[in-house]
Design brief:
The protein is mainly α. The protein contains eleven helices and six strands.
Amino acid sequence: NASFTSSMPALDILRVSQVDAGRLDAELVETLGAQLSRVVHAYDVLDDAPRGVWNITAEMRLALDVGLFACTTGINRPTPGQDLMNLRLRDERAWRAATARGDVAVKTGVEGEGLSVATRLAYGVVRCAGRYAWGKWQEKMLRERFDEDEGDSWKYRAWRLSQTAENAHAVASFVNFCVFLRHGSYPTLLDRALGARLVYQRPSMARVVDFEYLNQQLAWRELSELVLFTLPYLYSTRLRSSFGALTRPMSSSSSSSSASTQPRGGVTVQAYECVACGCREPVHPFVAEPCGHPYCYYCLRARMVDRTTCP
């Protein structure tokens, strides 16, 4: 066994690729489910539609899960997320047994057949039917208020048992994910229980990541946050008056109060405080034309929803 392990090539599957594959598949199902929900909602609002058509979200999710499984893992094909990440599922136990017997020549470490029929069947039952059944059971307990029943009733005991099982599953999933981060295989409990390991489809295909676009997005995001942070200070009345006192000579006209009118671009600006909220230093100030009333940006936008003229 030690010689067998030492002769095997090192197989290190990128952990981020395995996690991203699962997230991409989940987002695909969510997107398709949202589109189906819109179609069902449009059908439900018709006069001749049967009542209760809208309450089939769980059944739609089950249909999507079964359809995705039947077209991918059910026939030993990678899911869309796995295909994008250059991954596929391999029966790890069968591959290791075949390699130990010498039936398979190990070259790159990603050889091996897909999942067996029994493994695929168990995978589909747990992923599709198991998730649907657990969701319906949770819905039944919530609808019939199992947690509010008497302590010695079967409903309360079932609710406590379900909570214990859910907490145990959450803890086991956390421990499994920590082990996955350490060893790089089996990101989920179901994969580990069935021995379904994600390996590369094509060993010669390298994962190329271009960080140029990401760097541009990060740079623009930091710049925008800096601008949004500094703009209120640049428009501060106190800061502008202090800066103006240092840059222009003293004159009799500059000694007038801030409430006096000042010409600005042909528009007479009234007292420099927001006429909507009364703030003496408007946040992102805007001036209404032709009346010249100053507003905070958000106050002006909120007022324009109700009326198109300045009061």
